Amino acid sequence: MIVTRKLAGKCLTGLGAVLCLAATASAQTSSDNLANPDATSQGEVSVTIYNNGQALVQDIRQLAIAQGRSRIEFPDVSAQIRPETLSFNAEGAGIVEQNFDFDLLTPGKLMEKAIGQTITLIRTNPATGTESRERATVLSTAGGVVVKIGDRIEVLRDDGLPVRAVFDRVPPNLRARPTLSVTVEAARAGTRPASIRYLTPGLGWSADYVALFDEPKGAIDMQGWVTLTNNTGTTFHDANTLLIAGSPGQGSGRRPVSPGMVRPGTESAAREQVGDFYLYPIGARTTIANAQTKQVSFLDVQGVAARRVYARTVNWLQNDGAPQPVSTSLSFSTSRAAGLGDALPAGTVRFYQRDSQGTPQFIGESGIGHTPAGSELMLTTGSAFDVYLQAEVEKREKITSSEWERSSRYRVIKDGEVVTQVESERPVEYYRTTMRYTMTNAKSEPVDIDLIQSGLDRGWWSHDFRIVSEDVPGEQLNLGSRKWVVPVPANGRREFRVTYEARY
Protein backbone atom coordinates (compact mmCIF):
# COMPACT_ATOMS: atom_id res chain seq x y z
CA MET A 1 0.00 0.00 0.00
CA ILE A 2 1.24 3.51 -0.84
CA VAL A 3 -0.25 6.52 0.93
CA THR A 4 0.23 10.10 -0.25
CA ARG A 5 0.02 12.58 2.62
CA LYS A 6 0.48 16.24 3.30
CA LEU A 7 4.12 17.42 3.45
CA ALA A 8 4.88 20.73 5.19
CA GLY A 9 1.61 22.15 3.92
CA LYS A 10 2.70 22.00 0.26
CA CYS A 11 0.64 20.05 -2.30
CA LEU A 12 1.08 18.92 -5.89
CA THR A 13 -1.85 20.17 -7.93
CA GLY A 14 -0.80 19.47 -11.51
CA LEU A 15 -3.66 16.98 -12.08
CA GLY A 16 -6.30 19.30 -10.69
CA ALA A 17 -6.63 17.28 -7.49
CA VAL A 18 -4.99 18.03 -4.16
CA LEU A 19 -2.47 15.17 -4.01
CA CYS A 20 -0.17 15.79 -1.08
CA LEU A 21 3.25 14.12 -1.02
CA ALA A 22 3.90 11.99 2.07
CA ALA A 23 6.77 12.72 4.40
CA THR A 24 6.99 9.02 5.34
CA ALA A 25 5.22 7.10 2.59
CA SER A 26 4.89 3.36 3.20
CA ALA A 27 4.79 0.76 0.44
CA GLN A 28 4.34 -2.97 0.17
CA THR A 29 6.03 -3.77 -3.13
CA SER A 30 7.75 -6.67 -4.76
CA SER A 31 11.44 -6.60 -5.53
CA ASP A 32 10.51 -6.61 -9.22
CA ASN A 33 9.10 -3.08 -8.89
CA LEU A 34 11.53 -1.29 -6.54
CA ALA A 35 15.11 -2.51 -6.40
CA ASN A 36 17.03 -2.57 -3.14
CA PRO A 37 19.10 0.64 -3.37
CA ASP A 38 21.92 -0.85 -1.32
CA ALA A 39 22.38 -3.89 -3.55
CA THR A 40 23.41 -2.21 -6.79
CA SER A 41 23.89 1.50 -6.08
CA GLN A 42 26.52 3.47 -7.98
CA GLY A 43 30.07 2.21 -7.59
CA GLU A 44 33.27 3.71 -8.89
CA VAL A 45 31.97 6.27 -11.38
CA SER A 46 33.95 8.01 -14.12
CA VAL A 47 32.36 10.68 -16.29
CA THR A 48 33.84 12.10 -19.50
CA ILE A 49 31.99 15.21 -20.67
CA TYR A 50 32.20 16.65 -24.19
CA ASN A 51 31.38 20.16 -25.44
CA ASN A 52 28.30 19.00 -27.36
CA GLY A 53 26.23 18.04 -24.32
CA GLN A 54 27.21 14.37 -24.61
CA ALA A 55 28.91 12.42 -21.85
CA LEU A 56 30.43 8.97 -21.41
CA VAL A 57 29.58 7.33 -18.06
CA GLN A 58 31.55 4.36 -16.75
CA ASP A 59 30.31 2.69 -13.56
CA ILE A 60 32.02 -0.26 -11.83
CA ARG A 61 29.92 -2.03 -9.16
CA GLN A 62 30.55 -5.08 -6.98
CA LEU A 63 27.75 -7.54 -7.78
CA ALA A 64 26.72 -10.96 -6.52
CA ILE A 65 26.03 -12.83 -9.75
CA ALA A 66 24.23 -16.18 -9.66
CA GLN A 67 25.24 -19.10 -11.82
CA GLY A 68 23.15 -19.56 -14.93
CA ARG A 69 20.66 -16.98 -16.14
CA SER A 70 19.71 -14.11 -13.82
CA ARG A 71 18.58 -10.50 -13.90
CA ILE A 72 20.71 -7.70 -12.47
CA GLU A 73 19.35 -4.19 -11.83
CA PHE A 74 21.40 -1.00 -12.04
CA PRO A 75 19.54 1.92 -10.43
CA ASP A 76 20.93 5.45 -10.57
CA VAL A 77 21.80 5.45 -14.24
CA SER A 78 21.10 8.54 -16.35
CA ALA A 79 17.41 9.05 -17.08
CA GLN A 80 18.52 10.05 -20.61
CA ILE A 81 20.73 7.01 -21.20
CA ARG A 82 21.15 5.96 -24.82
CA PRO A 83 20.48 2.24 -24.37
CA GLU A 84 21.97 1.34 -27.74
CA THR A 85 25.39 2.55 -26.52
CA LEU A 86 25.45 0.32 -23.42
CA SER A 87 28.23 -2.17 -22.86
CA PHE A 88 28.32 -4.61 -19.91
CA ASN A 89 31.37 -6.49 -18.71
CA ALA A 90 31.80 -8.97 -15.87
CA GLU A 91 34.19 -11.90 -15.67
CA GLY A 92 32.52 -15.16 -16.71
CA ALA A 93 29.19 -13.51 -17.57
CA GLY A 94 27.61 -12.48 -20.85
CA ILE A 95 24.63 -10.21 -21.46
CA VAL A 96 21.49 -11.76 -22.92
CA GLU A 97 18.95 -8.92 -22.71
CA GLN A 98 18.70 -5.39 -21.40
CA ASN A 99 15.80 -3.13 -20.39
CA PHE A 100 15.69 0.48 -19.30
CA ASP A 101 12.85 1.59 -17.01
CA PHE A 102 12.60 5.37 -16.92
CA ASP A 103 8.94 5.81 -15.89
CA LEU A 104 9.58 7.33 -12.48
CA LEU A 105 7.41 7.02 -9.40
CA THR A 106 5.58 10.35 -8.87
CA PRO A 107 2.13 11.27 -7.52
CA GLY A 108 0.99 12.15 -11.04
CA LYS A 109 2.27 8.88 -12.51
CA LEU A 110 0.64 6.90 -9.69
CA MET A 111 -2.72 8.43 -10.55
CA GLU A 112 -2.27 7.89 -14.29
CA LYS A 113 -1.36 4.23 -13.79
CA ALA A 114 -4.41 3.80 -11.51
CA ILE A 115 -6.93 4.49 -14.30
CA GLY A 116 -9.52 1.71 -14.17
CA GLN A 117 -8.43 0.69 -10.67
CA THR A 118 -9.88 1.38 -7.26
CA ILE A 119 -8.15 3.61 -4.72
CA THR A 120 -9.09 5.03 -1.33
CA LEU A 121 -9.79 8.73 -0.86
CA ILE A 122 -9.41 10.12 2.66
CA ARG A 123 -10.98 13.51 3.30
CA THR A 124 -10.49 15.58 6.45
CA ASN A 125 -13.12 17.95 7.76
CA PRO A 126 -11.18 21.16 8.42
CA ALA A 127 -13.58 22.18 11.21
CA THR A 128 -13.64 18.96 13.21
CA GLY A 129 -10.59 17.08 11.94
CA THR A 130 -12.79 14.04 11.30
CA GLU A 131 -11.60 11.76 8.50
CA SER A 132 -13.91 10.00 6.05
CA ARG A 133 -12.90 7.20 3.67
CA GLU A 134 -14.39 6.31 0.32
CA ARG A 135 -13.43 3.79 -2.32
CA ALA A 136 -13.20 5.37 -5.76
CA THR A 137 -12.48 4.10 -9.26
CA VAL A 138 -10.17 6.36 -11.29
CA LEU A 139 -11.75 7.08 -14.69
CA SER A 140 -9.47 9.75 -16.21
CA THR A 141 -6.60 12.15 -15.48
CA ALA A 142 -6.93 14.27 -18.64
CA GLY A 143 -7.14 17.86 -17.39
CA GLY A 144 -8.10 16.72 -13.90
CA VAL A 145 -8.85 13.56 -11.94
CA VAL A 146 -12.27 12.04 -12.63
CA VAL A 147 -13.41 9.26 -10.26
CA LYS A 148 -16.49 7.12 -9.76
CA ILE A 149 -17.67 6.86 -6.14
CA GLY A 150 -20.63 4.55 -5.79
CA ASP A 151 -23.28 5.74 -8.25
CA ARG A 152 -21.82 9.23 -8.75
CA ILE A 153 -19.09 10.68 -10.95
CA GLU A 154 -16.89 13.25 -9.23
CA VAL A 155 -14.06 15.54 -10.30
CA LEU A 156 -11.47 16.02 -7.59
CA ARG A 157 -11.25 19.75 -7.20
CA ASP A 158 -8.20 21.84 -6.37
CA ASP A 159 -10.03 23.77 -3.64
CA GLY A 160 -7.44 23.57 -0.88
CA LEU A 161 -9.31 20.93 1.14
CA PRO A 162 -6.97 18.22 2.41
CA VAL A 163 -7.39 15.01 0.38
CA ARG A 164 -5.19 11.93 0.56
CA ALA A 165 -5.14 9.24 -2.11
CA VAL A 166 -4.25 5.73 -0.92
CA PHE A 167 -3.01 3.25 -3.53
CA ASP A 168 -3.08 -0.50 -2.91
CA ARG A 169 0.14 -1.22 -4.80
CA VAL A 170 2.85 0.26 -6.99
CA PRO A 171 1.83 -0.03 -10.65
CA PRO A 172 4.14 -2.19 -12.78
CA ASN A 173 7.19 -0.51 -14.38
CA LEU A 174 7.21 2.53 -12.09
CA ARG A 175 10.61 3.06 -10.54
CA ALA A 176 11.81 5.26 -7.72
CA ARG A 177 14.96 5.93 -9.77
CA PRO A 178 15.94 5.41 -13.43
CA THR A 179 16.90 1.73 -13.54
CA LEU A 180 18.74 -0.37 -16.08
CA SER A 181 18.21 -4.13 -15.89
CA VAL A 182 20.26 -6.74 -17.73
CA THR A 183 19.75 -10.46 -18.06
CA VAL A 184 23.07 -12.28 -17.95
CA GLU A 185 24.28 -15.84 -18.37
CA ALA A 186 27.08 -16.67 -15.90
CA ALA A 187 29.32 -19.73 -15.87
CA ARG A 188 29.86 -19.47 -12.11
CA ALA A 189 28.37 -17.77 -9.07
CA GLY A 190 30.20 -15.21 -6.98
CA THR A 191 30.70 -11.54 -6.17
CA ARG A 192 32.90 -9.68 -8.63
CA PRO A 193 33.22 -6.28 -10.31
CA ALA A 194 30.81 -5.57 -13.15
CA SER A 195 31.09 -2.48 -15.30
CA ILE A 196 28.60 -0.66 -17.44
CA ARG A 197 29.50 2.01 -19.95
CA TYR A 198 27.06 4.22 -21.86
CA LEU A 199 26.59 7.58 -23.56
CA THR A 200 24.05 10.11 -22.34
CA PRO A 201 22.97 13.66 -23.18
CA GLY A 202 22.19 16.08 -20.39
CA LEU A 203 25.74 16.58 -19.09
CA GLY A 204 27.62 19.59 -20.41
CA TRP A 205 30.43 21.98 -19.64
CA SER A 206 31.68 25.36 -20.74
CA ALA A 207 34.74 27.44 -19.95
CA ASP A 208 34.88 30.98 -18.58
CA TYR A 209 37.96 33.10 -17.97
CA VAL A 210 38.65 35.98 -15.60
CA ALA A 211 41.63 38.15 -16.62
CA LEU A 212 43.05 40.99 -14.50
CA PHE A 213 44.96 43.44 -16.74
CA ASP A 214 47.89 45.41 -15.30
CA GLU A 215 48.59 48.06 -17.94
CA PRO A 216 51.79 49.54 -16.39
CA LYS A 217 53.31 46.05 -16.19
CA GLY A 218 51.91 44.98 -19.54
CA ALA A 219 50.60 41.70 -18.12
CA ILE A 220 47.41 39.84 -17.23
CA ASP A 221 46.65 37.31 -14.50
CA MET A 222 44.17 34.74 -15.80
CA GLN A 223 41.93 32.21 -14.09
CA GLY A 224 39.91 29.61 -15.97
CA TRP A 225 36.66 28.16 -14.63
CA VAL A 226 34.73 25.16 -15.88
CA THR A 227 30.95 25.27 -15.45
CA LEU A 228 29.40 21.79 -15.23
CA THR A 229 25.65 21.28 -15.74
CA ASN A 230 23.72 18.08 -15.05
CA ASN A 231 20.20 17.61 -16.40
CA THR A 232 20.30 13.81 -16.72
CA GLY A 233 17.84 13.16 -13.89
CA THR A 234 20.56 11.38 -11.90
CA THR A 235 23.28 12.44 -9.46
CA PHE A 236 26.75 11.06 -10.10
CA HIS A 237 28.41 10.54 -6.73
CA ASP A 238 32.13 11.05 -6.11
CA ALA A 239 32.86 10.86 -9.83
CA ASN A 240 36.24 10.94 -11.49
CA THR A 241 35.53 13.71 -14.02
CA LEU A 242 37.33 14.37 -17.30
CA LEU A 243 36.49 17.16 -19.75
CA ILE A 244 37.12 16.92 -23.47
CA ALA A 245 37.58 20.14 -25.47
CA GLY A 246 35.82 19.18 -28.67
CA SER A 247 32.67 17.47 -29.92
CA PRO A 248 33.38 14.16 -31.69
CA GLY A 249 31.35 13.75 -34.85
CA GLN A 250 29.38 16.97 -34.39
CA GLY A 251 31.95 19.76 -34.88
CA SER A 252 33.73 21.54 -32.06
CA GLY A 253 33.04 24.61 -30.02
CA ARG A 254 29.78 25.92 -28.57
CA ARG A 255 30.44 29.61 -28.51
CA PRO A 256 31.01 32.15 -31.28
CA VAL A 257 34.54 33.14 -32.15
CA SER A 258 35.69 36.45 -30.73
CA PRO A 259 34.96 39.64 -32.68
CA GLY A 260 38.69 40.28 -32.29
CA MET A 261 41.44 38.43 -34.09
CA VAL A 262 42.92 35.01 -33.37
CA ARG A 263 45.97 33.74 -35.22
CA PRO A 264 46.18 30.00 -34.49
CA GLY A 265 49.49 28.88 -33.03
CA THR A 266 51.74 25.93 -33.82
CA GLU A 267 52.89 25.14 -30.30
CA SER A 268 51.99 21.91 -28.52
CA ALA A 269 50.27 22.29 -25.16
CA ALA A 270 51.67 20.41 -22.18
CA ARG A 271 48.57 18.31 -21.64
CA GLU A 272 47.23 14.94 -22.76
CA GLN A 273 45.36 14.53 -26.02
CA VAL A 274 42.99 11.85 -27.32
CA GLY A 275 42.85 11.97 -31.10
CA ASP A 276 42.47 15.64 -31.97
CA PHE A 277 40.99 16.67 -28.63
CA TYR A 278 42.57 18.03 -25.46
CA LEU A 279 41.82 16.54 -22.04
CA TYR A 280 41.09 18.68 -18.99
CA PRO A 281 40.88 16.43 -15.92
CA ILE A 282 39.26 17.70 -12.72
CA GLY A 283 41.88 17.24 -10.01
CA ALA A 284 39.74 15.58 -7.32
CA ARG A 285 36.65 13.43 -7.44
CA THR A 286 33.48 15.48 -7.33
CA THR A 287 29.75 14.86 -6.98
CA ILE A 288 27.73 16.18 -9.94
CA ALA A 289 24.23 16.55 -8.57
CA ASN A 290 21.18 16.44 -10.80
CA ALA A 291 19.74 19.85 -11.75
CA GLN A 292 22.93 21.47 -10.52
CA THR A 293 25.48 23.91 -11.92
CA LYS A 294 28.98 23.49 -10.52
CA GLN A 295 32.13 25.55 -11.14
CA VAL A 296 35.64 24.11 -10.92
CA SER A 297 38.98 25.90 -11.48
CA PHE A 298 41.21 24.51 -14.25
CA LEU A 299 43.65 27.38 -15.03
CA ASP A 300 45.50 29.87 -12.84
CA VAL A 301 48.45 31.78 -14.33
CA GLN A 302 50.07 35.13 -13.52
CA GLY A 303 52.15 37.59 -15.48
CA VAL A 304 51.10 36.71 -19.05
CA ALA A 305 52.48 39.39 -21.36
CA ALA A 306 49.66 41.58 -22.71
CA ARG A 307 49.12 45.00 -24.23
CA ARG A 308 46.21 47.28 -25.06
CA VAL A 309 45.49 47.75 -28.76
CA TYR A 310 43.37 50.44 -30.43
CA ALA A 311 42.13 49.29 -33.81
CA ARG A 312 39.55 49.87 -36.51
CA THR A 313 38.73 48.03 -39.72
CA VAL A 314 37.57 50.25 -42.60
CA ASN A 315 35.57 48.98 -45.57
CA TRP A 316 36.65 49.74 -49.12
CA LEU A 317 35.60 53.23 -50.30
CA GLN A 318 34.08 53.95 -46.89
CA ASN A 319 33.06 57.56 -46.25
CA ASP A 320 32.37 58.30 -42.58
CA GLY A 321 29.97 61.17 -41.98
CA ALA A 322 31.64 61.76 -38.62
CA PRO A 323 34.60 60.43 -36.64
CA GLN A 324 33.99 56.95 -35.20
CA PRO A 325 35.45 55.54 -31.97
CA VAL A 326 38.07 52.88 -32.49
CA SER A 327 37.74 49.54 -30.73
CA THR A 328 39.84 48.79 -27.70
CA SER A 329 41.30 45.30 -27.42
CA LEU A 330 43.75 43.36 -25.33
CA SER A 331 46.38 41.36 -27.13
CA PHE A 332 48.25 38.39 -25.64
CA SER A 333 49.70 35.03 -26.61
CA THR A 334 48.99 31.53 -25.36
CA SER A 335 52.65 30.56 -25.88
CA ARG A 336 54.93 29.26 -23.13
CA ALA A 337 57.33 32.17 -23.74
CA ALA A 338 54.55 34.65 -22.94
CA GLY A 339 53.75 32.86 -19.70
CA LEU A 340 50.64 30.83 -20.54
CA GLY A 341 51.62 27.80 -22.63
CA ASP A 342 48.27 26.03 -22.77
CA ALA A 343 45.42 25.37 -25.18
CA LEU A 344 42.27 27.28 -24.21
CA PRO A 345 38.85 25.64 -24.63
CA ALA A 346 36.08 27.77 -26.10
CA GLY A 347 34.53 30.23 -23.69
CA THR A 348 34.17 33.85 -22.64
CA VAL A 349 37.07 35.97 -21.38
CA ARG A 350 36.05 38.74 -18.97
CA PHE A 351 38.63 41.47 -18.39
CA TYR A 352 39.13 43.58 -15.26
CA GLN A 353 41.52 46.43 -14.45
CA ARG A 354 42.28 48.10 -11.12
CA ASP A 355 41.23 51.70 -10.55
CA SER A 356 43.28 54.26 -8.62
CA GLN A 357 42.03 52.76 -5.34
CA GLY A 358 43.25 49.31 -6.34
CA THR A 359 39.73 47.92 -6.86
CA PRO A 360 39.27 45.68 -9.95
CA GLN A 361 36.68 47.11 -12.36
CA PHE A 362 35.06 45.29 -15.29
CA ILE A 363 36.28 46.64 -18.65
CA GLY A 364 34.73 44.23 -21.16
CA GLU A 365 34.44 40.66 -22.39
CA SER A 366 34.96 38.66 -25.55
CA GLY A 367 34.33 35.10 -26.68
CA ILE A 368 36.96 32.73 -28.05
CA GLY A 369 36.76 29.45 -29.90
CA HIS A 370 39.01 26.49 -29.12
CA THR A 371 42.45 28.10 -29.23
CA PRO A 372 45.71 26.13 -29.68
CA ALA A 373 48.78 26.89 -27.61
CA GLY A 374 51.03 29.55 -29.11
CA SER A 375 48.12 31.48 -30.64
CA GLU A 376 48.06 35.26 -30.85
CA LEU A 377 44.79 36.74 -29.60
CA MET A 378 43.46 40.27 -29.92
CA LEU A 379 40.16 40.31 -28.05
CA THR A 380 37.87 43.31 -28.38
CA THR A 381 36.56 44.62 -25.06
CA GLY A 382 34.62 47.68 -26.22
CA SER A 383 34.94 51.09 -27.86
CA ALA A 384 37.49 53.73 -26.90
CA PHE A 385 36.12 56.83 -25.17
CA ASP A 386 38.60 59.37 -26.52
CA VAL A 387 40.33 57.87 -29.58
CA TYR A 388 38.53 58.37 -32.91
CA LEU A 389 39.13 57.68 -36.60
CA GLN A 390 37.32 59.06 -39.65
CA ALA A 391 37.77 57.41 -43.06
CA GLU A 392 37.11 59.39 -46.25
CA VAL A 393 37.65 58.96 -49.98
CA GLU A 394 39.78 62.03 -50.64
CA LYS A 395 40.20 61.46 -54.35
CA ARG A 396 39.12 58.81 -56.85
CA GLU A 397 39.82 59.02 -60.58
CA LYS A 398 39.98 56.89 -63.65
CA ILE A 399 43.38 56.36 -65.16
CA THR A 400 44.39 55.08 -68.58
CA SER A 401 45.81 51.70 -69.30
CA SER A 402 49.08 53.38 -70.28
CA GLU A 403 49.32 54.89 -66.81
CA TRP A 404 48.65 51.50 -65.36
CA GLU A 405 51.30 49.95 -67.57
CA ARG A 406 53.84 52.70 -66.86
CA SER A 407 55.92 50.21 -64.93
CA SER A 408 57.38 47.36 -66.99
CA ARG A 409 54.48 45.08 -66.16
CA TYR A 410 51.70 45.84 -63.71
CA ARG A 411 51.83 44.11 -60.35
CA VAL A 412 49.31 42.59 -57.97
CA ILE A 413 49.69 41.62 -54.35
CA LYS A 414 48.69 38.02 -53.81
CA ASP A 415 49.18 36.12 -50.56
CA GLY A 416 51.48 38.90 -49.39
CA GLU A 417 53.79 38.63 -52.43
CA VAL A 418 54.05 40.66 -55.64
CA VAL A 419 53.29 38.52 -58.70
CA THR A 420 52.61 39.22 -62.39
CA GLN A 421 48.96 39.30 -63.50
CA VAL A 422 47.83 37.59 -66.72
CA GLU A 423 46.03 39.93 -69.15
CA SER A 424 42.29 39.57 -69.87
CA GLU A 425 40.37 39.98 -73.12
CA ARG A 426 37.40 41.57 -71.31
CA PRO A 427 37.08 45.41 -71.05
CA VAL A 428 38.93 46.74 -68.04
CA GLU A 429 38.69 50.05 -66.15
CA TYR A 430 41.56 51.45 -64.12
CA TYR A 431 41.16 53.59 -60.97
CA ARG A 432 43.45 55.48 -58.64
CA THR A 433 42.01 56.09 -55.15
CA THR A 434 43.40 58.13 -52.26
CA MET A 435 41.94 57.37 -48.83
CA ARG A 436 42.38 59.85 -45.99
CA TYR A 437 42.19 58.58 -42.42
CA THR A 438 41.90 61.32 -39.76
CA MET A 439 42.76 60.20 -36.24
CA THR A 440 42.27 62.10 -32.98
CA ASN A 441 43.57 61.27 -29.51
CA ALA A 442 42.25 63.08 -26.43
CA LYS A 443 44.39 61.04 -24.05
CA SER A 444 47.28 62.55 -22.13
CA GLU A 445 49.63 59.94 -23.61
CA PRO A 446 50.33 58.97 -27.25
CA VAL A 447 48.65 55.90 -28.71
CA ASP A 448 49.20 53.61 -31.67
CA ILE A 449 46.16 52.81 -33.81
CA ASP A 450 46.01 49.57 -35.82
CA LEU A 451 44.28 50.69 -39.02
CA ILE A 452 43.06 47.82 -41.21
CA GLN A 453 41.76 48.52 -44.71
CA SER A 454 39.57 45.68 -45.97
CA GLY A 455 37.94 45.05 -49.36
CA LEU A 456 41.12 45.33 -51.42
CA ASP A 457 40.24 42.10 -53.26
CA ARG A 458 37.07 43.53 -54.81
CA GLY A 459 38.59 44.23 -58.22
CA TRP A 460 37.27 42.51 -61.37
CA TRP A 461 39.94 39.85 -61.09
CA SER A 462 39.35 39.96 -57.31
CA HIS A 463 42.88 41.02 -56.34
CA ASP A 464 44.20 43.37 -59.01
CA PHE A 465 45.48 46.25 -56.90
CA ARG A 466 48.70 47.86 -55.76
CA ILE A 467 49.79 50.44 -53.24
CA VAL A 468 51.17 53.57 -54.93
CA SER A 469 52.03 55.41 -51.70
CA GLU A 470 51.49 55.08 -47.96
CA ASP A 471 52.56 57.41 -45.18
CA VAL A 472 53.70 54.49 -43.02
CA PRO A 473 54.80 51.10 -44.37
CA GLY A 474 51.97 48.58 -44.03
CA GLU A 475 51.64 44.82 -43.62
CA GLN A 476 49.53 42.74 -46.01
CA LEU A 477 47.39 40.47 -43.80
CA ASN A 478 45.71 38.60 -46.65
CA LEU A 479 44.45 39.20 -50.19
CA GLY A 480 41.88 41.76 -49.12
CA SER A 481 43.29 43.39 -45.98
CA ARG A 482 46.29 45.56 -45.19
CA LYS A 483 47.30 46.91 -41.76
CA TRP A 484 49.19 50.00 -40.67
CA VAL A 485 50.27 50.88 -37.12
CA VAL A 486 49.88 54.65 -36.92
CA PRO A 487 51.22 56.66 -33.95
CA VAL A 488 48.98 59.53 -32.80
CA PRO A 489 50.39 62.12 -30.34
CA ALA A 490 48.87 62.86 -26.94
CA ASN A 491 46.00 65.38 -27.16
CA GLY A 492 46.71 65.44 -30.87
CA ARG A 493 45.46 64.78 -34.38
CA ARG A 494 46.97 63.06 -37.39
CA GLU A 495 46.00 62.65 -41.04
CA PHE A 496 47.15 59.47 -42.75
CA ARG A 497 46.89 58.83 -46.51
CA VAL A 498 47.20 55.80 -48.72
CA THR A 499 46.89 55.79 -52.52
CA TYR A 500 45.75 52.61 -54.26
CA GLU A 501 45.50 51.65 -57.92
CA ALA A 502 43.18 48.88 -59.06
CA ARG A 503 41.55 47.58 -62.19
CA TYR A 504 37.99 46.31 -62.47
**Shape summary:** elongated
Count the beta strands. Answer: 33
Radius of gyration: 35 Å
Unreliable sequence segments: 1-39, 250-259, 407-412, 419-425
Strand content: over 45%
Task: State the distance separating the first and last CA atoms.
Answer: 87 Å
Helix tally?
A: 2
**Secondary structural class:** mainly beta
Q: What is the residue-mean pLDDT, rounded to a whole number?
A: 80
Largest sheet: 14 strands, mixed
Share of residues in helices: under 10%
Write the layout of secondary structure elements.
Blueprint: E1 2-3, E2 44-49, E3 54-65, E4 68-75, E5 87-90, E6 93-101, H1 107-113, E7 118-124, E8 131-140, E9 146-149, E10 152-155, E11 163-167, E12 179-186, E13 190-201, E14 203-214, E15 219-230, E16 236-245, E17 261-263, E18 273-274, E19 277-281, E20 286-288, E21 292-314, E22 324-333, E23 347-354, E24 360-368, E25 376-399, H2 401-404, E26 411-414, E27 417-420, E28 430-441, E29 447-453, E30 465-470, E31 475-478, E32 481-488, E33 492-503
Parallel strand pairs: 2-16, 14-23, 21-29
Antiparallel strand pairs: 1-11, 2-3, 3-13, 4-12, 5-13, 6-12, 7-8, 7-11, 8-9, 9-10, 14-15, 15-21, 16-19, 16-20, 17-25, 18-19, 21-22, 22-25, 23-24, 25-28, 26-27, 28-33, 29-32, 30-33, 31-32
